[in-house]
Amino acid sequence: MKLSPPPVASPAIQISSQVRVTVDARSVIRASNSSTALRQGTLSYVVFTVLTALYLLPFMRIMLPHSNEGTLIYGAERIVQGDVFARDFFEVMGPGSFYIMALFLKVFGITFLATRIWLFCSSLGIALCVYFLSRRVCARNAVLPCIVLAGTWFGMQWPSVSHHVDSNLFALLSVVCLVIWEERRYPLMHYAAGLCAGVTAWIHQPKGVLLMVALLFWCFYGTSSRTGRVANSRRLLLGFLAVGFIVCVYFFSQGALGSLFYANVIWPAQNYGAVNKVPYALGIFSEYWHHWAALQGRVTGWPIALATVLILPFLLVALIPAVLLLSVRELRSRPVKPSTLLCVLAGWAVWLSEIHRMDIYHLAFGCPLLLVVCVGLLGEHGARFSRWALQVLTISAACLMTVSLLQAVTAQTVSTRVGPIGVLRPEPLLQYVDAHVQPDEEILFYPYCPEYYFLTATKNPTRYSILVYNYNTATEFQEAVHRLEQRRVKWVIWDGSFDDHTFKTVFPGMSPMPAKAQIIEPYLQSRYKQVASMEGFRILLRNE
């Protein structure tokens, strides 16, 4: 029996089979590469999160004196006890941070630990957002913006609960949401971005409003999508307005909507700028460079070299607007990624919202997004000077982080009625108040020491955490005096160093009020006697 040979496939069929095999192989390779990239990306975020958390933890035990933290925490405590912002106590900051902090105090108790849980979450959240955006804008130096921020934020306003920190967190989250939408087209991201921008405005009104304008502009002109711009902008705006509607309904129901408008709109427009007009980057040398250069008691020797190295990140923070303006031509000469343009627009919005007071602390809080863009431009420039500048900046910022960490680790622990805290200098006043003043007793810390109300578990008899001439009105001073007399407040702690030190460093453009025009001082001198003095504080006891 004769067997026939097997059929031979035609050339066309053979080529088609080879193409299918090649396509399948490429698909497998792409899937494998995508899976590998996903694992590597996830691992990088895990490592970054763990290292950042370990760095942040030593700072969480510290409480800085004379910062906004005392105002925000004690205001949150008053909310937990039934008060309503602007109606029962007056503060110029937006209500957002007070109510967020009140939520944590309600859940975890009125303790120092409760405040640190939120501070840790907000600080870690900011670091992750900056890292997420840096991987897209400056992938070659993705960690550098985080290092610079970690070094420059330590000081007057961090580590502490702050409306600057809280508003930055939600502002960055709104940018992250739009970047995710740009990459994945998740339909809910515009709503989420709008909600985060609305919460930003609830915390820090100028920042939220300017940010919303920037996001809407990007939705129309910056995104790579050519369709659905109106619908996407509508979703973004709806999320933003939803937060404002809920806030207005709540304060209206509490009979405090008019008080809220006065405290956050009318009063700042009439009073805030009078004492907060300061030179650009105020404090960069007086509070930092000179502090490091005078470690041996005088400005000389190796401390000068140390100060010169450590000041470089602060100089970059101060010069970021100039660097970006000089790079406009370079940005125009090449295509700009949508994520980069979003960071530019939102970055300018955040920066402009913080220059109502142009000291170095506010500039540092205003720079996160612009810092990411600036590092990205230097990394892509390719010139030898750019590479050298990034290397020097990395070394300087790492040294600054190390110095800050050493201060946090070596801070001494002090026992308080709300738990142990870390302090950078002795606090004998806390021990005195604990020994002589009962918990929940009314006491006035004048003119500005609101953190002591929280730490000593005492109560402020007035509606004001700060009483400063040319900042507070005469009517507000008279109201405070009336409350002291009406409540017959037994104790007053008068910070005598405020006029000597704070006026010169915090309010350099303001002159002390002449004795003839003072309101509260004559009352204190006539109704109280000094029984002790420590660390610049005069302890006054009411005359029987």
DSSP strand count = 6
Strand content: 5-15%
Please, what is the oligomeric state? Answer: single chain
Mean pLDDT figure: 89
What does this structure look like?
The protein has 544 residues and is mostly helical. The protein folds into 2 domains: 36-409, no CATH class; 426-542. The protein is built from 23 helices and 6 strands. A 4-stranded mixed β-sheet has the order 3-4-6-5. Strand 1 (412-414) and strand 2 form a beta hairpin. Helix 4 packs parallel to helix 6 and helix 7 (189-203) runs parallel beside helix 9. It is globular.
Write the layout of secondary structure elements.
Blueprint: H1 11-56, H2 68-80, H3 96-108, H4 112-137, H5 144-153, H6 163-184, H7 189-203, H8 205-221, H9 229-253, H10 257-276, H11 284-293, H12 302-310, H13 312-326, H14 328-332, H15 338-354, H16 360-366, H17 368-381, H18 384-409, E1 412-414, E2 421-423, H19 428-436, E3 443-446, H20 451-455, H21 474-487, E4 491-495, H22 497-505, H23 520-527, E5 528-534, E6 537-542
Parallel strand pairs: 3-4
Antiparallel strand pairs: 1-2, 4-6, 5-6
Describe, in short, the structure shown:
With about 550 residues, the chain is mainly α. The protein is about 65% helix and about 5% strand.
List keywords for this structure.
mainly alpha; 2 domains; two-stranded antiparallel sheet; 544 residues; 4-stranded mixed beta sheet; 5% strand
